[in-house]
């Protein structure tokens, strides 16, 4: 007569040890997984749920950080433009005038091109 190992005895009794918390628990306290030899996951439901919650929280924090970095970069670009204007010691009205003149020039060029096409 051979003696059973602890693992074999637990299998007969329907008990399994959680790999995360280390506590022996009945099989109904483990989620099912067909690919496992005993048909149950290696971590208990409680530990599995806790891990899932922590993973979701980390993912949310990561996404929030990424969005914050993206907004900071956009803010830095806008700040750089404003600071660039100040460094040139050029009044903002002059910059706006130059922009309007450039837009007017582009519109005049488009009008000339379209006028040449229609003739």
Write up this protein.
With 119 residues, this protein is mainly alpha-helical. Among the domains are: 6-45, no CATH class; 91-119. It is 66% helix and 12% strand. The protein contains three helices and four strands. The chain has helices at residues 6-13, 45-87, 92-118, and strands at 15-17, 24-26, 30-32, 40-44. The strands form two sheets. It has a two-stranded antiparallel sheet. Strands 3-4 form a two-stranded antiparallel ribbon. The longest helix has 43 residues, at 45-87. It is rod-shaped and about 100 Å long. The chain starts with 5 loop residues before the first helix and ends with a helix.
List the SSEs and their pairings.
Layout: H1 6-13, E1 15-17, E2 24-26, E3 30-32, E4 40-44, H2 45-87, H3 92-118
Antiparallel strand pairs: 1-2, 3-4
Descriptive key words:
119 residues; mainly alpha; two-stranded antiparallel sheet; two-stranded antiparallel ribbon; 3 helices
In short:
The chain has three helices and four strands; from the N terminus they run H-E-E-E-E-H-H. With about 120 residues, it is mainly alpha-helical. The strands form two sheets. The protein has a two-stranded antiparallel sheet with strand order 1-2. A two-stranded antiparallel sheet has the order 3-4.
Number of strands: 4
The string of secondary-structure elements, in order, is HEEEEHH
Q: Biggest sheet, strands in spatial order?
A: 1-2
Reported for the largest beta sheet, the result is:
2 strands, antiparallel
Structural class category: mainly alpha
Q: N- to C-terminal separation? A: 108 Å
Overall mean confidence score, pLDDT: 80
Radius of gyration of CA atoms, rounded to a whole number? 34 Å
> Could you list the spans in which at least 5 consecutive residues all have pLDDT below 50?
none
Number of helices: 3
Tell me, briefly, the overall form. Answer: rod-shaped
Helix fraction bin: 55-70%
- Give the strand content: 5-15%
């Amino acid at each position: 007569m051979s003696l059973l190992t602890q693992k074999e005895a637990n299998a007969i009794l329907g008990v399994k040890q959680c790999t995360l918390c280390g506590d022996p628990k009945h099989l109904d306290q483990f989620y099912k997984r067909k690919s496992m030899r005993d048909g149950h996951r290696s971590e208990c439901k409680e530990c599995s749920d806790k891990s899932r919650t922590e993973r979701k929280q980390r993912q949310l924090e990561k996404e929030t950080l990424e969005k914050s970095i993206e907004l900071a970069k956009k803010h830095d670009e806008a700040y750089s433009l404003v600071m660039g204007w100040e460094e040139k010691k050029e009044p903002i009205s002059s910059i706006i005038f130059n922009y309007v003149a450039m837009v007017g020039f582009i519109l005049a060029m488009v009008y000339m091109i379209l006028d040449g096409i229609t003739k």
